[in-house]
């Protein structure tokens, strides 16, 4: 058996899974997007661009998604990085394990239950009532973009923390000691060594959070109260309620294209930053 044949056989299961579970469903959705809505719902085979011409009708959903998904990703990064840095570099082995468990604990509960908890906290009997008690009246948090952003950060923060933590935990501490011995300040050490070497963790965490947020629908539905609509909510409405599969497929295809463009640009940026990381490693 030749090496090429052996490689083909080893890759065949994964390739088959990729074809059946990813490419075929996307192909079906792409075909549906050129169809028309059947009178009783579903799709009628056709070849028309009418569904794509109607995409501006869902502009609000795309605007909310393309605004809150990047903002939520960036906010999660700004919160997760100091926490991951403390866990990997500063925390003692005993406390490191305890704190890592505390980061995981929210995942032991359904996102639905956690979102309902935030509905209470951000609702009239929660934080607004506390603010009113101290003299700050008229604050409305629930059913706002802020509420959705809070739910996003809370729900996806662990997915940002762990990749960054792994990247920082593997950091050679001798590099930090050498930088200190050579007279570099803590800020310069962080900027020139720690941050460049943690770029792979940052890239992985941002990718995980951003891709999942682009398809999110539960958090906007619960904390947004139907006033903060994501593309995921639009797809649920189009496929399950109005049963306009053709239009829903066009929206889904457009979302996939937007994600592919965004991820491609993002990966090119990360590759450029990776050159800096390699220079640091060589030094």
TrEMBL record:
It is a multi-pass membrane protein. Keywords: Cell membrane, Membrane, Transmembrane, Transmembrane helix, Transport. Residues 62-268 form the ABC transmembrane type-1 domain. One of its GO terms (cellular component) is plasma membrane. GO terms for biological process: transmembrane transport. InterPro entries: MetI-like, MetI-like_sf. It comes from the Bacteria. The chain crosses the membrane at residues 66-87, 99-121, 141-166, 201-225, 245-267. It is found in: Cell membrane. It holds the Pfam family BPD_transp_1. SUPFAM superfamilies: MetI-like. Belongs to the binding-protein-dependent transport system permease family. CysTW subfamily. This is Spermidine/putrescine transport system permease protein PotB.
């Amino acid at each position: 058996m030749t090496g090429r044949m052996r490689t083909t056989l080893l890759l065949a299961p994964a390739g088959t899974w990729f074809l059946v579970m990813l490419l075929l469903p996307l192909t079906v959705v792409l075909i549906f997007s050129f169809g028309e809505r059947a009178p009783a719902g579903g799709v009628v085979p056709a070849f028309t661009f009418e569904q794509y011409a109607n995409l501006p009708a869902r502009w609000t959903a795309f605007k909310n998604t393309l605004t809150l998904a990047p903002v939520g990703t960036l906010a999660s990064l700004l919160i997760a990085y100091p926490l991951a840095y403390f866990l990997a570099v500063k925390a003692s082995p005993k406390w490191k394990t305890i704190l890592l468990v505390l980061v995981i604990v929210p995942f032991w509960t359904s996102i639905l239950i956690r979102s309902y908890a935030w509905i209470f906290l951000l609702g009239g009997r929660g934080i607004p009532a506390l603010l009113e008690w101290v003299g700050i009246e008229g604050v409305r948090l629930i059913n706002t973009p802020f509420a959705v952003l809070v739910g996003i950060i809370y729900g996806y923060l662990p997915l940002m923390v762990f990749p960054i933590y792994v990247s920082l935990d593997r950091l050679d501490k001798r590099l930090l000691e050498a930088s200190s011995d050579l007279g570099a300040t803590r800020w310069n050490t962080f900027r020139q060594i720690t941050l460049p070497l943690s770029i792979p963790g940052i890239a992985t965490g941002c990718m995980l959070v951003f891709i999942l947020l682009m398809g999110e629908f539960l958090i906007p539905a619960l904390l947004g109260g139907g006033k903060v609509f994501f593309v995921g909510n639009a797809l649920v409405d189009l496929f399950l309620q109005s049963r306009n599969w053709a239009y829903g497929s066009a929206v889904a295809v457009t979302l996939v294209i937007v994600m592919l463009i965004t991820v491609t640009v993002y990966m090119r940026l990360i590759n450029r930053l990776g050159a800096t990381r390699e220079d640091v490693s060589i030094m």
